[in-house]
Amino acid sequence: MPPSSLRVVYAFAREMHPKTSDVFIQYGTAGFRTKANLLEHVVYRMGLLAVIRSRVKNGRTIGMMITASHNLEPDNGVKLVDPDGEMLEQSWEEIATRLANVSDNDLESTTEQVIKQVNADMSLKASVFIGMDTRYTSPRLAAAAANGVIALKGTPKEFGIVTTPMLHFCVKCRNDNTYGTPTEEGYYEKIVGAFKNIRDKLPVYGDYNTTLYVDGANGVGGKKLNIIRKSLDGELDLNLYNLGGNGGKLNLNCGADFVKVSQTPPVGVEHAPFQRVASLDGDGDRIVYYYLDDKEKMHLLDGDRIATLLASYVTELLRASEASGLRLGLVQTAYANGASTRYITEELKVPVSCVKTGVKHLHHAALAYDVGVYFEANGHGTVVYSKAAKNAISKIAQEGEPEQRKAAQLLQNFIDMTNETVGDAISDLFLVETVLRARGHGVRQWMEAYTDLPCRQLKVTVQDRNAISTTDAERRCTAPEGLQSKIDELVAAYTSGRAFVRPSGTEDVVRVYSEADTQEAADKLAAEVAQAVFDLAGGVGERPALPA
Ligand code: G16
């Protein structure tokens, strides 16, 4: 593409997607995310970048997902997906941020600089898959994305409303046809098909029952489960709530993030004692479980619980199939409950690594293992399998002794049911249901594995959240001065106390996390740390109060 044809980049920008705000925007934990009305020019420009990225990857398909995931309805965002279905390579985040912030007048020259910098061959074909969530601002932003792709003569393909993980899956399949068919139907065929196959091998027994309640967060995940439900032939009876009708608002007082952070059940869901409920987030990439007991007390089964459940089951199957020499490991973040980490290392005897928040960090760390299980406590995670692991399992499934073969075949179904590209609420739901069914377990047995340390999360609004810098996988902060020593001093007063703070990469807040031996203590510690953040990092509005 000769540089003169880059003029169209400016023409599209000026006529259709002008930059109307000077607010600096940064590629964060999961792409760009802010108020929807500040995003149109950003998404258009990411369309340009997706084409450049596709050409750098020799014409392989890149994904663009229009979503603000767990954020409330007025926000929106865009996540870029690399050819293997993983998040955009981190070294490109700075380029994305630069392109998003230049003026319209500088857009043409900056685009040209980027093309040179990354050495893109603009004569190659380029392909970009575009998906969106259910927000009313998403269609407009998806159109801006497509215009960005067209401006650089790439080929956009629009998937309409899909979950984020479905788009990741389709991108992967488009670039590697051994993984599946790059359509929503192809996704159902592979993931739901594997679930149905494994079900035939696992009779229902013990405390497991096939009824599952689901909180759809009034987003896309619930809608897709409603499609899937009809094909499950009673193997799993899904009672779906918060599907977006009856005035229910996206992620408002419902959904995985609300349930995890507030530790309270969502609105809009009926409850029965000990009935397991799965709560999804707005774009279907996170899931947590919970139940109410006979005194209506809530018990949360979060990402840590899902990770330990899956890791222990895969370990069992690997052992039974006698697949030797495969390393299984688990990846967590600082938010992982201390009790879960202890359980994984001491009881399951599985190695654990701790990385920074963001699935992009967890995913890469998990690839170091033959079987890498990664989960954030907020319910975002999956399992990844190396080629060597898949080959070894497949060989045993064909050639092993009968018992080994049986375990290896179950593992193969388990792998097919897993969306290895990214955390996926729907795929994770089927994985969890499979393990519970295989073990004849209800929620109480699942909960018995270990006892969580009481914890609390809070948000503090400050003038500039980037005033907080962190190190050691975000477990300690290096700025502003004095904050870490104050946190150390506060934590020291609590039994089993732990706390950290970090700037959110998806909301304009500083997040505070605390753990201690009682809920009262964890609540008080979180509030004290929040006050310290407010005082030392430029708090805005009302100073956080200590619990009464
Ligand atoms: C995104 C990321 C997650 C992260 C979450 C919160 O989730 O994909 O890895 O845990 O944001 O990030 P932060 O604490 O930086 O705001 P989602 O589901 O919103 O896309």
From TrEMBL:
Cofactors named for this entry: Mg(2+)
Domain Phosphoacetylglucosamine mutase AMG1 span(s) in chain numbering: 181-288, 302-440
MF-aspect GO terms: metal ion binding; phosphoacetylglucosamine mutase activity
Tree of life domain: Eukaryota
Top-level enzyme category: isomerase
CC cofactor note: Binds 1 Mg(2+) ion per subunit.
Domain Alpha-D-phosphohexomutase alpha/beta/alpha span(s) in chain numbering: 61-101, 113-172
UniProt KW Cell division keyword: no
Keywords noted in UniProt: Carbohydrate metabolism, Cell wall biogenesis/degradation, Isomerase, Magnesium, Metal-binding, Phosphoprotein
Name of this chain's protein: Phosphoacetylglucosamine mutase
GO biological process, one term: cell wall organization
Binding-site positions, Mg(2+): S69, D281, D283, D285
Catalytic residues (positions): S69
Residue ranges of domain Alpha-D-phosphohexomutase C-terminal in the record: 487-531
Task of the protein: Catalyzes the conversion of GlcNAc-6-P into GlcNAc-1-P during the synthesis of uridine diphosphate/UDP-GlcNAc, which is a biosynthetic precursor of chitin and also supplies the amino sugars for N-linked oligosaccharides of glycoproteins.
